[in-house]
Amino acid sequence: MQNLRYVGKNLFIEKLSIKNILKTNKTPFYIYSENQITFNYLKFANTFKKTNPLICFAAKSNSNLNILRILSRLGAGADVVSGGELLKALKAGIKPNKIVFSGVGKTEEELKIAISKRILLINCESESEAKLVNNLGKKLKKKVSIGFRLNPNIDAKTHKNISTGKADNKFGLSIKNFKIFLKTSKSFKNIKLDALSVHIGSQILSDAPFRKTLNVMSKLIKELKLNLKYVDLGGGFGINYTDKEKPINLSKYSKLVHNFSKKINCRIIFEPGRSIIGNTGLLVSKIQFIKKGTNKNFIIIDAGMNDFMRPALYEAFHKIIPIAKKSSKMRDKIEFVGPICESTCKFGVYKNYPKINENDFVAITNVGAYGSSLSSNYNTRPLIAEILINKNKFRYIRKKQNLLKLINS
Known about the structure:
By secondary structure, this protein is α/β, with parallel strands linked by helices. It has helices spanning 18-22, 34-47, 65-74, 83-91, 108-116, 127-139, 175-184, 208-224, 250-264, 274-277, 310-314, 403-408; strands at residues 4-7, 10-13, 16-17, 29-33, 54-58, 77-80, 99-101, 121-124, 144-151, 173-174, 191-197, 230-232, 267-270, 281-292, 297-301, 320-322, 334-337, 346-350, 361-365, 385-390, 393-398. A hairpin with a 4-residue loop joins strand 14 (281-292) and strand 15. Helix 2 (34-47) packs across helix 3 and helix 5 crosses helix 6. The radius of gyration is 23 Å and the shape is elongated.
């Protein structure tokens, strides 16, 4: 994050000291940099400027209404995977003709909402879904624009839990089955195939899997002589969670996409999430206790896996930094853990970590994507606050959930 730095010994986000935020806010809480969100989106748009794609932000990565509003003002559309996300995107001011609806198990109620709101595309992921959309279109007396999500059987070389383009993944339709469906699709009078969609995974750091995908799509469109309005290339662009990781070279990929779009003569859609929002957020937490263990010391913080699920769900590493930096180091190996009664409620092991004490504060970095959106009330814990920073001012974009309301609901 360009907007995160130490001034003296204190951690600042934009022009605001986190220490000052802590004076009036109890941990844990999320904070985001509005200027970083804007920077990331405009950088992405500029990288693909020659192609002029429709950029549909993946709302599942962070569905906070205020963040969606920022992106809407910048010109973003939305990639949604539920009826709730669809309605939230519309409430944020995103136009229906900039919304695509993805997901393998859309309900009839969700599809009715999508059809009635006249969104750009429903990306179908099975023959049964396409038939259902056709039947609903007939009942509602509307012809519905659909895309079909393909499963190209390409290994994105990412974590198994976020791989979506291999044959054994649940997403999309195999090319063989898509060809079979295409032969019968003319009998469906209330749907129109306007797009092909593909999304091969998340946190991808190389353009090689994307290059393979473009080749597969190009050959298929040519072979079947498809007349499409759009090709939705999904998202999945990775960020560097560690100093050793290098993010994907999007400038290099943009040239491949531009050549591809000229060949097929239709508009490109992207569905970036993590690459827009991932590095914009911190999770600020307090050190409750430090407990000596046999092989390491446990740093017990007040943020739990219910607040931030990625390490437990994906074995993900997120760098943890102190709010107030100290020059001395801790000699023992330490592990940051949370209060949830699960062994997977842990956030990282460190050696030679800066000296910290009970009641000090730390920040888990790069939590903008799949942080708050994956949070839950597990262990009957309230959802935590979310704060948005712009220069030297901050405002709540979600207040902490009231515990009494939670236990009575």
